[in-house]
Design goal:
By secondary structure, this protein is mostly helical. It has helices spanning 11-18, 36-50, 57-64, 68-71, 78-91, 103-120, 136-146, 156-187, 191-205, 212-225, 231-252. It is flat.
């Protein structure tokens, strides 16, 4: 399956659009009656409702009540549109004021903000952002999130690394949670129903003596979580372990005294 990537369009034109820089060449023809923001809002709505395949240039144009060719006078193509969509949802993220709170609480708030973003816009977690859209929304998000690492004793590279490490965990969790939702939707069964459907045959073919550790641990985890995988538990457990890992670095740098509690 092809992977959607940010910054796949023309770099200069994309930056002009992100920062709303007027094109150098004067535009001929009728005055534009739409705005880039209107185009982006329709695209985001389609992606939220139907996934990232939905906001084609034709579908977005239909949503705006214009001909597809009209849309190209606002946005060159799907690649640039995707960057505009990402930057818009970044700009609209709530930003918690965690000043004066321990660093673990500050980073927990950052994680929660990104988790909420991906719950509201699941498609955003599926976009590869190795080349991020460097628009005002992303820059405001980055500035805010870096502030959560103030006072931790990290140098600039380590601060960026620590933030990337945390956000990669949240993104991976968001993808896993989306996969779980998709499985329930596509199978029309919840996890308990799915396991019940396969239990009789599994009891015939699986010898617990051949896989004693896997059987014992799998049964214990399944009983505890009600399934082989519980996204909520996985997030809580994983976030605590991610922060524990960062704590080792912070303490080595002499910043651990600012707050050791989660």
């Amino acid at each position: 399956m092809p992977v959607e990537r940010s910054s796949a369009g023309d770099p200069a034109r994309t930056l002009e659009l992100l920062w709303r820089v007027p094109a150098d060449a004067p535009r001929r023809g009728p005055r534009q009656r739409l705005s880039i923001d209107a185009v982006v809002d329709v695209a985001i709505g389609l992606a939220d409702a139907e996934g990232l395949e939905a906001p084609t240039m034709r579908r977005v144009a239909q949503g705006l009540g214009v001909a597809p060719m009209t849309l190209y006078t606002y946005v060159p193509g799907k690649a640039e549109l995707l960057d505009l969509m990402l930057d818009a949802v970044y700009a609209r993220m709530p930003r918690t004021d965690t000043s004066g709170r321990p660093w673990r609480e500050r980073l927990t708030a950052v994680a929660e903000e990104n988790r909420a973003l991906f719950e509201a816009h699941p498609w955003a977690a599926s976009v590869a952002t190795g080349r991020p859209p460097l628009g005002p929304g992303l820059m405001a998000k980055y500035e805010h999130e870096l502030s959560a690492l103030e006072g931790c004793g990290l140098d600039d590279v380590e601060r960026d690394d620590a933030l990337t490490y945390l956000l990669d965990f949240v993104r991976a969790h968001a993808r896993s949670a989306a996969e779980a939702r998709d499985a329930r939707r596509d199978s029309a069964m919840d996890d308990a129903q799915w396991w019940a459907a396969g239990a009789p045959l599994l009891a015939q073919v699986l010898d617990p003596a051949a896989y004693p550790t896997a059987t014992r641990v799998g049964t214990a985890a399944g009983t505890a979580h009600g399934s082989a995988h519980n996204p909520e538990h996985a997030y809580t457990f994983g976030l605590a372990r991610a922060l524990d890992g960062l704590a080792a670095l912070v303490e080595r740098r002499g910043g651990g005294s600012a707050g050791s509690l989660l």
